[in-house]
Amino acid sequence: MGYMRGSVWKNVDWWTIGLYLILVICGWFSVCGASYDYGEPNFLDITTRAGKQLMWIGCSLGIGFVILMLEDRVYDTYAYLLYGIMILLLFGTIFNPHEIKGSRSWIVLGPVSLQPAEFAKFATALALGKYINEYTFQMQCTRNLVTVLGIILLPMALIILQKETGSALVYLSFFLMLYREGMTGTVLFSGICAVVFFIVGLKFGTEIMPDEMTSWGEFSVLTLVILLSAFLVGRYCQRQSPKLATYIFGIGGGGTLLGALFSNYVIPFNVCHLQLALCGGIVLTLAFFYLRERLRAYFYVILFVVGSGIFFFSTDYVFNQVLEPHQKIRIEVLLGMKDDPAGAGYNVNQSKIAIGSGGLFGKGFLNGTQTKLKYVPEQDTDFIFCTIGEEQGFVGSAFVIFLFMALILRLIVLSERQESRFGRVYGYCVLSIFFFHLFINIGMVLGLTPVIGIPLPFFSYGGSSLWGFTILLFVFLRIDAAREK
Hints:
Elements: H1 2-11, H2 14-35, H3 49-69, H4 73-77, H5 79-94, E1 107-109, E2 112-114, H6 116-132, H7 142-161, H8 165-169, H9 174-180, H10 185-204, H11 216-236, H12 244-265, H13 271-293, H14 296-322, H15 325-334, H16 346-357, H17 369-372, H18 384-416, H19 421-445, H20 463-481
Antiparallel strand pairs: 1-2
């Protein structure tokens, strides 16, 4: 046991721990700046948010120490057990009578409130690492891929039922790890297409072409589906059918162009009906080639065309019937469909003002006017980056982003040097989560991404967030330290 502990402190990556400590310290000063009011007790007083955050930091350091002292085999051996426990907690929280800000994602234990969704991330990452590490696992195997997707989507679904959509979306970051482990790029391609179809269809769905019959949104999306299907056939079926992609592009794209010209200058009609007929023809043609040649690529292109159509025509229902009103208005404001500076766009507008007023070097610690006057709601949690921008300016904001990128790049190095697939998979899960939080949080503060309410790691106020990120990171450091044991 003595040798094991000595080897942990010898092999642990101190560069990562150093970055962690710097981020945590900078985060605490940011919480101080965002929450402090003149006349309040000092920062160390436990009744203030800064004092409470300092207590969470102390607990996090203790958690990190305990994690490093445990045997590394614990995380592999009990991965499924931890995952099962977290799934039960997530399920039980759905029926929690305590509702905080419209969400049932919290467990209230006296004065302490914990969010199981923050801790379920590391349990899901462990379960993925253990399953993918099995000797018989192959990413190309449909059964294995379905199981992996189930491990990811189950906690995601439970968190959505808790009305915590932002935390649920974080689980999409695991797809970056799957791509590293051999998942075909078509999955990521399909995801990007889904986002583009959703945005284009929503933003331009009500705009009508000059023929006064055709929606620009539907026309644009269906045109993309036809052209992308020709591209996919040319990319994956060129050897078997060298001219098929050209035919699809010529007939589908040419038919769409001629139909639009005819509708606008001869007899108006809904061009989308013609496009749907062309898509049907593409599906029937690909089905014929699939039955004749038994090439799976044809089947996947068929799924893309059909799935794109179903997804696109269901977006209106999802947007109007599934999303909450505040989520809909945030998306509409982000896409420029509505201007609501006093409502849904208030947070982002005030955040931009705060960051812009910071200039190059900032106003100085505790000197932010937007911060002190509480113009930015949630300025010490989800919108804490605006406090950094106002008080520390562009230089301070760039330094914080540099620290996060250094941490992510260091995690990539550590993940790639793992001798086991378990360690590599878990490491990529950790860095994917950090990257997702960083990108979305800073993006929503700057008005570049929807406001979905996820914290900035190590900076946003709260024990659950800080503990969850600490556990994620230190479990990986313990796994990495055992690499040379």
